[in-house]
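Reminder to self: tokens first, then the designed residues, so the page reads top to bottom the way the pipeline ran.
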């Protein structure tokens, strides 16, 4: 009793001191202060039909789980966000700001008041414009109910005679509970078509031997909580002529048989855009301490060094990629003046949450710079994700039990002023 009385007096004092712009528990209500944060950071996954196990869309949803919400936001377990925000922040960052975190904690501690509903309605926008074209897996895939993870290739022939310029792209899983992540590549040789719906374990080694030159080895990707990506006017992604979209898909284990026929939504650009988004992929070729092999019972760090960049680049996004032995990943650029430009740091790699990290604005990397990456892999039994028990020798490969080290950027050729552009628009 007296404790809470003291607390109340303390809060009144704090409210007098901080006024309206600080975190003042007396004035915090669900509708005004909390719902906008939850809509922005949580309900992308925590709503009906999405990956998370329960919805956080209504006041009641949040209120009845208040103590669990308090625990997971305080510990930063939720929202899932694996990049180190002190190294670099991102446009599509889900992590809560300190201010939002404090608001949620203070609101819960002071009783989680509901307040009055706001006329304006939800701020989240889950209603995207209609896509211009939807392409899907050729047939529904049956996910066996054998409690095993599934890694599959799907080939979607687009059969486009000319390149398609896109202002937006979205991967839309149809089985949102089991779809875990996807990587979408582009093949224009049609040689991957026979591998439609085959298992990555089996097809991976064969595809590797065929050594098919992909038109794009990482065109776009998807993890839960990702939505279609849109680009500003005049900037577009391109789907080359005669494209087959090759989807590398991971499904979570299921106890009962289910189906999936995921879609890719294409949003056409108006006319031919002035600037095209290109992809830059650094793979194991650029590792400086080869061989790229993993002896059992060892932890090893591989280092990557790009060639000296011949032109100025404006980076849009970065995507590090490893498999199950991955532990941490860091990348940065060193400019000709010796300055360090931080790109990404993932201190605790999680295979299930790999995603495209979009820079807040275009990030200029001057000509003459070199991009570096360092990735640590744990091939001991201390790594709970190690696919082999006891640990075995692991090599490079497409199979999930093999390893990879990729560093993928989306970029535009730099134009003066890019670094000052408000790339995603003022409201973002
Ligand atoms: C990218 C998707 C995603 C986002 C965004 C997200 N969650 Fe979750 N959340 C999940 C998934 C998946 C689970 C279940 C698996 C797990 O616990 O990791 C979960 C579990 C939880 C749990 C239960 C934890 C437990 O121990 O059982 C709580 C509480 C929770 N989330 C709250 C939140 C809150 C609050 C936010 C926003 C601040 C949020 N989540 C944002 C995907 C998400």
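Designed residues (428 positions):
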């Amino acid at each position: 009793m007296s404790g809470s009385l003291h607390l109340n007096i303390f809060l009144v004092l704090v409210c007098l001191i901080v006024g309206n712009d600080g975190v003042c528990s007396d004035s915090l209500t669900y509708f005004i202060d909390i719902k906008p944060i939850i809509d922005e950071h949580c309900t992308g996954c925590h709503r009906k039909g999405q990956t998370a196990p329960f919805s956080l869309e209504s006041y009641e949803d949040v209120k009845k789980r208040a103590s669990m919400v308090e625990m997971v936001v305080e510990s930063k377990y939720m929202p899932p966000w694996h990049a180190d925000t002190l190294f670099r922040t991102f446009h599509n960052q889900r992590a809560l700001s300190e201010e939002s975190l404090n608001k949620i904690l203070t609101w819960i501690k002071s009783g989680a008041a509901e307040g009055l509903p706001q006329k304006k309605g939800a701020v989240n926008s889950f209603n995207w414009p209609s896509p211009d074209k939807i392409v899907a897996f050729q047939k529904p895939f049956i996910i066996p109910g054998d409690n095993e993870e599934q890694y599959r290739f799907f080939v979607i022939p687009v059969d486009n005679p000319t390149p398609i310029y896109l202002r937006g792209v979205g991967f839309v899983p149809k089985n949102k509970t089991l779809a875990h992540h996807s990587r979408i590549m582009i093949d224009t040789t049609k040689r991957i078509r026979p591998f439609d719906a085959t298992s990555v374990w089996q097809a991976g080694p064969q595809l590797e031997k065929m050594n098919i030159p992909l038109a794009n080895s990482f065109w776009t990707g998807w993890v839960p909580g990702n939505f279609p990506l849109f680009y500003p006017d005049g900037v577009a992604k391109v789907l080359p002529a005669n494209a087959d979209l090759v989807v590398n898909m991971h499904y979570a284990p299921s106890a009962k048989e289910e189906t999936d026929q995921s879609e890719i939504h294409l949003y056409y650009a108006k006319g031919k855009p002035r600037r095209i988004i290109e992809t830059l992929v650094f793979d194991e070729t650029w590792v400086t301490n080869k061989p790229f092999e993993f002896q059992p019972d060892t932890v090893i760090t591989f280092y990557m060094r790009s060639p000296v960049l011949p032109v100025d680049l404006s980076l849009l996004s970065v995507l590090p990629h490893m498999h199950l032995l991955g532990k941490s990943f860091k990348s940065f650029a060193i400019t000709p003046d010796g300055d360090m430009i931080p790109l990404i740091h993932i201190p605790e790699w999680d295979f299930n949450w790999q995603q495209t990290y979009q820079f807040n604005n275009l990030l200029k990397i001057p000509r003459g710079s070199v991009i570096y990456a360092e990735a640590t892999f744990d091939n001991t039994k201390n790594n709970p994700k190690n696919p082999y028990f006891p640990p075995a020798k692991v090599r490079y490969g497409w199979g999930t039990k093999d390893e990879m080290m990729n560093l993928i950027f989306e970029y535009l050729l730099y134009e003066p002023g890019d670094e000052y552009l408000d790339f995603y628009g003022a409201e973002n």
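The longest strand covers residues 370-379.
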